[in-house]
Amino acid sequence: MRTAVLKFPGTTCEEDVVKALRLVKAEAEVVKFNSFDPDRYQGVVIPGGFSFGDYLRAGTIAANSEAMKGVREMADQGKLVLGICNGFQILVESGILKGALLPNLKLRFITKWTYVRVSRKDTPFTRGIKDVLLMPIAHAEGRYYLEDEEEARELAVFQYSNPSGLVVEEVNPNGSVQNVAGIANQAGNVIGLMPHPERASFSKLTPDGSTDGLEILRVFGK
Amino acid sequence: MMLTLSSKEMELVRSTLDREPNEAEWKVVDALWSEHCSYKSSKTFLRSLPTTGQGVIMSVEDWQDAGAVDVGDGWALVLKVESHNHPSAVDPYNGAATGVGGILRDIISKGARPIALLDMIRVGGLDAKGKWLLKNIIAGIASYGNSVGVPVVGGELSFDPTYTDNPLVDVACVGVVKASEIVPSVVRTPGLKLVLVGFTGLDGIGGASFASRKLSGMDEIGAVQIADPFAGKILIDATLEVRGKVEAMKDLGGGGLAVAVTEMANGLGARVQLERVPLRVKGMSPEEIIISETQERMLFAVKSENVQEVCRAFEDYNYPCEVIGEIVSEPRITFTYEGKVVVDLPSQLLLSPPLFVWPMNRKVRTEEVKEVSVREALSTILLHPDLGNKEWAYSQFDYEVGVSTLVKPGQADSAVIELPNGRQIAVKGDANQDLCEVDAYECGKAIVAEAFRNLASVGARGIAAVDHLQFGDPRKPEVYQDFVDSIRGISEAAKFFSVPIVGGKVSFHNEDKNGNPIKPTPLIVMAGLVEGKYLKPRVEEGWLVLLGITRNE
Amino acid sequence: MYAVELIIVNKDGVRDPEGETIKRFVIEEQYSGIIGEVKAGKYVRFLVEAKSKDEAESLVKRIAEEKRLFNPIVHKIIVRSERVEDGSP
Amino acid sequence: MYAVELIIVNKDGVRDPEGETIKRFVIEEQYSGIIGEVKAGKYVRFLVEAKSKDEAESLVKRIAEEKRLFNPIVHKIIVRSERVEDGSP
Ligand SMILES: Nc1ncnc2c1ncn2[C@@H]1O[C@H](COP(=O)(O)OP(=O)(O)O)[C@@H](O)[C@H]1O
To answer: Could you tell me the fold of the domain covering D2-13+40-83?
Structure first.
């Protein structure tokens, strides 16, 4: 699948994502935010980083860009949209995904390997994949919030869990409602998540040699 | 006007010029002759360090911004260490963050892509002030490193009352570049255009001399610099995009344009039209423009035909890029403002400050060893915050970005990262203030050996190191003696292990508010290549084997 | 010219860890009973050319909404202004 | 009861990259000429039991200093207050 990896000023993970996408044979390329043409791609990934320095609030300034209008178009057309970390924040800030991402309860940046339970398998990204994935988070503003907790649970695709997939409060790294680590839109073609699948795609970099991130990225190789 | 020049130095300037310099000229001389930029009290001894060796591509000899060594397949590893001690004492968050920004710019100045950062932090203790310092220092490093996407892969956290007023914030960076694509810091031919990127503001006016002075506790607002990691990220990305079109580059650090232009011209001359400098605030005086130390700026020497292309990359990010002058053959540094000459000084004068060797005197050390019970010794050691779990600190760093951190913080004595050519390097920074306080010479040797051992513990052999020498006021004979002794130690050990010292930095005037020097704190950052497979950080089971003789030390 | 302040705070009911932390560490030891709620937020100050206070404030409100300077799901905003001569607060 | 606002911004003359970035990338295209300077900072609101406005404000000032809620080397603070009944802003 022709996939754009969108780079805003301040994006830091674009090359890492491309490297991982190549492993699943996706036709991926980095595209700068001011030269993004949504019609040329079937999929788009908004990688992690600190777009526009995350000034004011993570993702806000990028959410205002022309490029995000293009992403919205793709989302509306049912094309695949994946936002990782800052990408998730941008999707939420632009209103393409519902909710908000607030500062971690501990009020600091946290890097940590986390287990997440895959709670929705009705999305193109999660169809038929494992139940529990191991991926690292690295963020300061990842506390997912939605007033209606029931709705949050329905949207949730990934929830922080223990290694056997139990969603328990003790493993919630940032205080998100319902341990939400990632959500999708109703249709399932737009996903945002705080953990980094691209960092869980190379066995030499993971604590146990797993490559769970590839499970999510694989859809771009189709 | 606040100058750090001594009356003897001022006399020397007057007699060389055969006239009284104007105020702007004094400031330019002051910046270039500051300890920070000129190494006038240390150069004589730094020359004794082993700076060449197998694999060294660029070393101190070339007087470049950072050193480089061969890591195979045409790739070079670029290495540099620096501190931001005084700024961090007054504004730990911005002080530490701008330290990271500065060290990153040193690496990109060579055309290298920064791939890892290390931070070595020393504060007084865990009282209210120490906590405030530590919390903000770590947050500052995290904010900058994370924002620009360079993983902080290791470092040190150490506590000692000697740092209560004067914390040490050392940051080191490694980068990679094809050896054939290293960009020099100095020019060789006249005619090149000088291109400045980034806005110039009022920040940090007087910073180079600030670092070369003790902390007065007075209003140091002028020397406070605010970090702008977002601008730093743009600078890194755009600079690496254009590196092939640039003949020489330098970051703007201590002493601002005055120092960058003079050092880049390196004996040739330069003419700069100050009215062309893009300003952040209106109404800056020509002098202020010359010595402003605003962060996130770079100076490039570019062939006329490449200027447009270079600037386009920055304009893409809405980042200012302007031709401000050119390199000329007449060896004079000239700054003009709207046609009026502001500064006109011979390059040679600026580049040759008088060197000093200060008097030395060895401290009288008490040989007596205190008797302590095993119990007391053990509990003192085990309860010392130095041995505490550092996860609180390193979990604030994005050490996974770049998908190349193989051995991560907290897993082993050194970090291991993968290079673009598939080889692996290990890096580690080490200092030992307690030993240095007792015997600076032995300590110099010990820290090199410790760094070498730390690398060995993950299966790597040291290939290059940089040192950072942090002391009190060099005019104090005991301080200066320690300084000289530690260099002798470092030098001897580096030769013994065949690890060339490819760069470093000196920081004097680290003192508490009563004017007592900090414990001598030389620091070594060493990089090594992993031979074969890197060693697993932890094993599940097996024998514990202790090598070497245990002495009563 | 008007100096318009935009204050962005969490809605009531949304946790405000920063306010909570300030309250907990900063106050309770010494000032409990004196200091009640503590709420933290973001402050942005705009210098606006406008004919009236109203015009200045509604411009900033519009910008805040259009550019999503706040996220209506979690934040509420307070907008205030005062007339200034040279813009220094 | 008094609602005391503590606003922490960079001192004049000290850079404010956050405000600059908001201005450059969010405001400028559409509103240049209308919006001048943009300055960003922190906002903390305390509910304080005090006998007078003065007492309330000086208490918050003292807390801000003692507890290092700002760094006097880089920041300046603005403290304001108003009398409130129930504390809702
Ligand atoms: N303690 C030291 N040991 C070895 N080399 C040093 C030391 N201090 C400074 N140097 C070298 O002196 C040169 C000039 O450094 P400097 O001008 O301070 O660099 P920068 O412009 O990056 O601050 C560099 O090559 C640096 O590595």
So the answer is: Mth169; Chain: A , (3.30.1280)
